[in-house]
Each structure stands twice: as structure tokens, then as C-alpha cells.
């Protein structure tokens, strides 16, 4: 009677880490890099402002359709082969996006690019967890967290530089050389551990005998519908739009049917039964809630700088760079601290520090200086590092190695959906708070008030000194005063949202009581020995 081989860990773990990080970093960057180039792309393909948003929406929809299926693909084709195929699809989609000549074609190519990108983060997360020994799992998750959080921060800066100095198509073409390097490195260095490979081969045989086509279809339709509502709801005035209502109803029907199907299927395509593990469930749900709060605050600050302080996309990206640098430096340190400090302490400290950083933003005005912005950004970066490294680590502590890909797909999906919900909610609140503040500010602009009369007279004199006639100068003065009122109302709305974000960070601290951790492995258990180096590993399943 044969026994399963003992877990082994490759000796070239850092080369494997660098190899699989290439694709995930590019996918994370591409989620945000296109946003800064939408104006140039819109003019090139002849689209309206509302139509061009589909260049981002199609990418997001494709990624959420594939994320939960990353483990299914890994079982059917092997994790390494699945990663290589998805990376090649992402590179091919990037090349086609750079050649796009019309909006429908661009939407199609972005969808293809998103199909490739969707499986990269969860597959990398599973590979890293299988590559690093138990005592170094926190370091592996520190690297993964750094990749998925640094990517969206770098995207706007890189995109702004490319758009300012080159054609917009280069935001896609830049993926080609980096992607080919990633393909070569993954093909050469990534190894699939023998115990994982054999377990996946057995699971694949059972999967082929019980293909869960209905679960896959329900999941794809439901996730695509839900993501469409999050992405397009704001521009369509949410449930005032019949289109949004219809798509939301589709999601409301298909997603519960998908959950029911996966819980009753003999071999589900998406293993929702992992949520029976309280450690995984608490870590994943809390991680989703944290992403809801954090991504919302990250969305507000660059918008504030661009709309109210007059920063370009590249300038706002550079202003946010301290947060990226802090995360790059501190995340590996937090990975080392994980084995010495309880995760609840690290996460609570991160929540308080990040909340303080967001709270400092609540006092921003039109005269806010660079030092105030950098201080707030520094605190947010430090808090983010303390927060997500332990969350990403503790969630997988009790998951068996062959099921890490299933857990990674669910964890990544919930994180993505939480981000989408956070962005949708805060974008809607920003519009509402701005309208409310504008009503209050406008009430102070009564034409019979002395202050208003004096301000209009100052503006009018300034315009007349530049050669305007009295009537035109008076009309221009009123427009300028109305614009100033709108800007002040927008500042008040941003400050209110920053304050709300800080409050959410604070309220999240007690949730650490619900975070479960896996029991420590006994010290008497011997550590697995590294696998001998191999010239080639056949991962076909």
C-alpha cells in the first residue's frame, strides 16, 4: 500500500518567488494604469466618456470570473502550466490592446487580458505557500502582499509618465518584455512539489468524472453580473437605471444557485466547503472588510490631489510614492515579526496607524502642503504593512497544501469584490456629500451679503483690468464665485469621507476578537528536508 510523499520545499525559493511575481505585479498594475489614459484612448477610438469606462469594466469582469476557477484550472492542467498559460494569455491580450482600433475591439481585448490576469494572483499565492516552509510562511505572504498592494500604487504614476511622453498604446506594450521574462523564469525555475502534484492528479481524475459545468456557468454569469453592477452602477445612477436593476436581478438569482450547487455537487469546481474552516473564514472575511476600508481611502487621496490641488496623474502618483516605499521596506520586517508577535496585535496596530493616517487627511484644505500629505501617506503605508501581512498569513494556516489553490482563489475573489464594493460606496457618497455641502455653501452666497458684494467687486475689477467690459467682467466674477463655492463644497465632502474612513478603521479593531488562529505545530515534529534540485519537472496532470 503506497503512502503519500512527505511535503518537500525547493531550494531555489527566491528564484521561484521572483518568477511568479512578474505576472501578478503586471496584472495588479494593469488594473489601474489604464484609468489615467482613458482620455487619450477615448479620442483615439472615438468613444464617449461613458463608453470608454468599459475598457476598465471588461477587464474587471473577466478577472472575477477566473479568480475562483484558478484551483480548478490548476487541477486540470497543473499549477505551473496553468500559470504559464494565463500569463501568455495576459501578454497576448496586452499586445492586442495596444493595437486596438475601435472601442468594441478594445473591450474584447481587455476582456481577454483580464481572463489571463484573473488566475495569476491566486495561483502565485498558492505556489508561494507551497514553496516556503511553515516557519517562513509569513515572509512569503509579505512578498505576495507587497506585490498586490504596490501594483495599484505604481500604476497611475507609470501610466501618467507613459501617456505624457509616449503613445497610450505603450501602457500595454510595456507588458511584453516583462511578460516574456516572467514566462522564461517560471518555465525554468518553478517546481511543483511531488506531494502537491500527486494530490492534484488524483483530484483531476475525479474532477473529469464529475465535471461541474452548471456550477462554472452559474459562477461566471453571477460574478460577471455582480461586478457589472459595482463598476457601472455609479454612472447609471444605480437602481434608477432599468439596466442596472435587470443585471442585479440576474446576480441575485444566479449567485445563490451557484452556492447551492457547489455545496451539493460531488466534485465542485469551486470548493466553498473551505469556509467550514473557522481560521480560513475569519481571516478571509476580515481581510475583505479591511480591503473595503483601505482601498476606499486609497481611492480618495489621489482624486483629492488631482481635482482640487491641480496635480496631474503622474504628480499624484509621485506624491503617493512614500506609501509604496514604506510598504516595500516594512512588509518583509512584518513577515519576520509574525512568529514573535500575535497577529491580532499586529493587525490592531495596523488599523490604528492607518486610521490615524486617514484621519490626518480629514483636515486637508485647498492650501494643504506637501509635508501634511507625505505624513498621512507614510502612516497609511506603515499601517497597511502591519495589517495585511498577518491577515494573508493566518487565513491559510490550517489549509492542506493540495487545497491552497482553492483557498487562494476564494481569498483573492473576496478581496477583489470588497474593493469593488468600497469604491462604489465611497464614489456614491462623494457625489452625495458634495451635493449636500454645495447647498450649504451656496446659501452663504446671497447677493445682498456685504462679503459677497465685496468679493464680486474684487473679481470684477481684476477682470476689467485685463481688458474685459463691465458686463462680461461681472458675469465672469459670478462664475468664478460659483466655482469657488463648488470647490469648497468638494473639499468638505472629501474631509467628511476621510473622517468616515478613519472611523471605520477604528471600529474594525474590535473585530480582531473574531480572528481565529491555527494551533501551533509541535516542536517535536521534524522540519521537512528540501527537495533535491531538478533539471526539469514534468507537471502535466
Task: Characterise this structure.
The chain has 541 residues and is mainly alpha-helical. The chain folds into three domains: 1-211, Up-down Bundle (Growth Hormone, Chain: A); 213-264; 273-518, MFS general substrate transporter like domains (Growth Hormone, Chain: A, Up-down Bundle). The chain has 22 helices and no strands. The chain has helices spanning 13-33, 38-45, 49-52, 54-66, 70-77, 79-99, 103-118, 120-131, 137-165, 170-173, 175-189, 194-209, 213-232, 242-264, 278-307, 313-319, 321-337, 343-361, 370-394, 404-442, 450-465, 470-508.
List keywords for this structure.
disordered C terminus, Growth Hormone, Chain: A, 541 residues, mainly alpha, 3 domains
* Biggest sheet details: none
Q: What is the C-level CATH assignment of the largest domain? A: Mainly Alpha
* Total beta strand runs: 0
Q: What is the typical, i.e. mean, pLDDT?
A: 79
Structural class: mainly alpha
Name the helicity range: over 70%
CATH architecture of the largest domain: Up-down Bundle
In the CATH hierarchy, the third-tier topology of the largest domain is known as Growth Hormone, Chain: A
Radius of gyration: 25 Å
Order of helices and strands: HHHHHHHHHHHHHHHHHHHHHH
| Cα end-to-end separation | 22 Å
- CATH homologous superfamily descriptor of the largest domain: MFS general substrate transporter like domains
As a percent range, the share of strand residues is under 5%
Question: Please, how many domains?
Answer: 3
- Form type: globular
Low-confidence stretches: 521-541
Helix count from the secondary structure assignment: 22
Amino acid at each position: 500500500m503506497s503512502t503519500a510523499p512527505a511535503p518537500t520545499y525547493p531550494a531555489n525559493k527566491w528564484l521561484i518567488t521572483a518568477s511568479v511575481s512578474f505576472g501578478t505585479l503586471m496584472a495588479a498594475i494593469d488594473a489601474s494604469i489604464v484609468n489615467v489614459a482613458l482620455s487619450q484612448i477615448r479620442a483615439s477610438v472615438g468613444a464617449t466618456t461613458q463608453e470608454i469606462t468599459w475598457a476598465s469594466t471588461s477587464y474587471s469582469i473577466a478577472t472575477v470570473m477566473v479568480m475562483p476557477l484558478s484551483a480548478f484550472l490548476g487541477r486540470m492542467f497543473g499549477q505551473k502550466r496553468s500559470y504559464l498559460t494565463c500569463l501568455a494569455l495576459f501578454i497576448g491580450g496586452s499586445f492586442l490592446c495596444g493595437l486596438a482600433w475601435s472601442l468594441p475591439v478594445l473591450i474584447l481585448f481587455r476582456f481577454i487580458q483580464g481572463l489571463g490576469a484573473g488566475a495569476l494572483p491566486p495561483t502565485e499565492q498558492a505556489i508561494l505557500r507551497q514553496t516556503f516552509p511553515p516557519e517562513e510562511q509569513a515572509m512569503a505572504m509579505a512578498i505576495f502582499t507587497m506585490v498586490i498592494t504596490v501594483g495599484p500604487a505604481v500604476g497611475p504614476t507609470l501610466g501618467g509618465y507613459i501617456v505624457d511622453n509616449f503613445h497610450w498604446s505603450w501602457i500595454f506594450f510595456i507588458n511584453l518584455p516583462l511578460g516574456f521574462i516572467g514566462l522564461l523564469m517560471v518555465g525554468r525555475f518553478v517546481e511543483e512539489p511531488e506531494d502537491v502534484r500527486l494530490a492534484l492528479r488524483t483530484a483531476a481524475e475525479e474532477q473529469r468524472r464529475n465535471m461541474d459545468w452548471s456550477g462554472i456557468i452559474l459562477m461566471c454569469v453571477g460574478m460577471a453580473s455582480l461586478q457589472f453592477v459595482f463598476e457601472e452602477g455609479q454612472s447609471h445612477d444605480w437602481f434608477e437605471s432599468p439596466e442596472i436593476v435587470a443585471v442585479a436581478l440576474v446576480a441575485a438569482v444566479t449567485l445563490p444557485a451557484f452556492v447551492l450547487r457547489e455545496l451539493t455537487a460531488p466534485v465542485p469546481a469551486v470548493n466553498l466547503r473551505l469556509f467550514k474552516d473557522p481560521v480560513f473564514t475569519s481571516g478571509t472575511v476580515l481581510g475583505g472588510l479591511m480591503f473595503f476600508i483601505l482601498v476606499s481611502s486609497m481611492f480618495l487621496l489621489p482624486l483629492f490631489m488631482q481635482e482640487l490641488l491641480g496635480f496631474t496623474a503622474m504628480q499624484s502618483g509621485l506624491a503617493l510614492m512614500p506609501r509604496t516605499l514604506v510598504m516595500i521596506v516594512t512588509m518583509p520586517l512584518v513577515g519576520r515579526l509574525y512568529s514573535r508577535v500575535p497577529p491580532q496585535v499586529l493587525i490592531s496596530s495596523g488599523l490604528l496607524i492607518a486610521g490615524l493616517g486617514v484621519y490626518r487627511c480629514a483636515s486637508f484644505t485647498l492650501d494643504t502642503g506637501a509635508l501634511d500629505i507625505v505624513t498621512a501617506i507614510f502612516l497609511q503605508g506603515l499601517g497597511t504593512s502591519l495589517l495585511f501581512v498577518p491577515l494573508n498569513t493566518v487565513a491559510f494556516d490550517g489549509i492542506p497544501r493540495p487545497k491552497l489553490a482553492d483557498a487562494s482563489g476564494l481569498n483573492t475573489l473576496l478581496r477583489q469584490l470588497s474593493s469593488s464594493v468600497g469604491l462604489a460606496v465611497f464614489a456614491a457618497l462623494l457625489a452625495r456629500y458634495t451635493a449636500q455641502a454645495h447647498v450649504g455653501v451656496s446659501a452663504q452666497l446671497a447677493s445682498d451679503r456685504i462679503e459677497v458684494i465685496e468679493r464680486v467687486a474684487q473679481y470684477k475689477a481684476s477682470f476689467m483690468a485685463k481688458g474685459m467690459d463691465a458686463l462680461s467682467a461681472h458675469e465672469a466674477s459670478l462664475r468664478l464665485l460659483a466655482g469657488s463655492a463648488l470647490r469648497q463644497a468638494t473639499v468638505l465632502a472629501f474631509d467628511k469621507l476621510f473622517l468616515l474612513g478613519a472611523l471605520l478603521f477604528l471600529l474594525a479593531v474590535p473585530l480582531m476578537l473574531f480572528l481565529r488562529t491555527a494551533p501551533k505545530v509541535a516542536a517535536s515534529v521534524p522540519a521537512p528536508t528540501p527537495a533535491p534540485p531538478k533539471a526539469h519537472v514534468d507537471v502535466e496532470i
